[in-house]
Amino acid sequence: MAAQNDFSQGSVPRNIMELAVPMTAAQLVNVLYSVVDRVYLGHLPESGSLALTGLGITMPIVSILMGFANLCGTGGAPLCSISRGRGDVREAERVMGNAFVLLLILGAAVTAVFLALKRPILYLFGASPDTFPYADGYMSVYLCGTLFVMISLGMNPFINAQGFGRIGMMTVLLGAAVNLALDPVLIFALHMGARGAALATVFAQALSAAWVLRFLTGRRAIVRLRREDLRLDRSRTGKIVSLGLSGFFVNMTNSLVQVVCNATLQRCGGDLYVGVMTIINSLREVFIMPVQGLTNGAQPVAGYNYGARLYSRVRRSVRFSVGVTVAYSALFWAAAMLCPGALIRIFESGPAVLEAGVPAMRIYFAMFLFMSLQIAGQGVFVSLGKSRQAVFFSLLRKAAVNAPLTVLLAMRMGASGVFLAEAVSQLVGGLACFTTMYVTVYRPLERMADGEG
């Protein structure tokens, strides 16, 4: 099995696609957890618009929880791949054990904080008296399943890092099937509304978490989760956190921008524009997840070959992943530009939402191709263990460009300025990240590849 998952052999594009296809499918299905909830709630009789907006208020909190999962998963999994490439499976297992313990500690702490401060946080994040009951109902239930969510999201990358892309995909597919089956029952048949949507998600993530742990402790795994590796080591934990800060800050800055956008839109246009942003964010998740799936599929291949000092294969993985990422993103950009109304109607078909949403969507996604360059470039940094660059560009686009621009442009342009700020940040962040990756990583790999023989 170890030889079968040796990424130093065979075609680089084939190795990437064998991981990327199931991981992309898993990423898309993973979006269904939240997007399907929003679709169902948006079609509730009489209260659909308020319920959809209320759920949108909780998105920054969900993003924060995912950030802590990414801190452990995207921090530990690349280190696991690099250790495998060096032939040190025991070190890979120690890294995974440390990541798992860290995940449990952070999950418990974050759950306690949000449960204690839930009401003021939701109002700070853009809730109104009309939308708070829906946001509160969803969040109260969702937080009770935080550990399930974090285990599922944070440990699944260790399955993919070993080359078991289809097993990793099944983690998500099993949970998604449960979520899809329970949503209509709990939301409509049992009249639980937002609480029902959250409960379906908790059940689904619990099943996914059980699947992940069963595989990682079983005989099929190359790198196993062992009891003796569940003691935190300062050096390993530091490396995990350092590299994982990239994925962590992606989610933290996403949360920051969502909070700033929701609060600003609440002042500029009220619940209507907060609802429009909820729809656009939902579509962005669908658009961007396949890109992230491809990038995540390339990371174990690049990291393994980097650890094995096969630099020409690392360069091939970079070229292939970037090319496919840009081509794929172009299709979704065209869909957003040509038929925004049809996409919005999936969630809400009211005339006011369509009137406000169509121009907003075209502005928001105008520079989406450059966003794909940032994802590709940042994925290269993470896969090669270059934590500083990955963290810097995570912070640059959202915290340094998007959030301040949202406030400034909204003061001059109203609600349209909020959506324009996102487009500008995609342009600036994408060009800066990709250019830096090309100059500091891709070109030096050419010189390193010349000395392989």
List the helices and strands and how they pair.
Blueprint: H1 12-42, H2 48-85, H3 89-116, H4 118-124, H5 132-142, H6 146-161, H7 165-189, H8 193-216, H9 234-268, H10 271-307, H11 311-338, H12 340-345, H13 351-364, H14 368-383, H15 387-413, H16 415-450
Describe the overall structure.
- The chain is an all-alpha fold.
- The protein has one domain (12-448).
- 84% of the residues lie in helices and 0% in strands.
- α2 runs antiparallel to α3 (89-116), α3 (89-116) runs antiparallel to α6 and α11 runs antiparallel to α16.
- The longest helix is centred in the N-terminal third of the chain and has 38 residues, at 48-85.
- The model has no long low-confidence stretch (mean pLDDT 87).
Order of helices and strands: HHHHHHHHHHHHHHHH
Terminal Cα span:
28 Å
For the residues shown, what is the average pLDDT? 87
Structural class: mainly alpha
Main beta sheet = none
Give the overall shape.
globular
Number of helices: 16
Poorly predicted ranges: none
Fraction of residues in H or I helices? over 70%
DSSP strand tally: 0
How many individual domains?
Answer: 1
Roughly what fraction of the amino acids lie in strands? under 5%
Radius of gyration: 21 Å
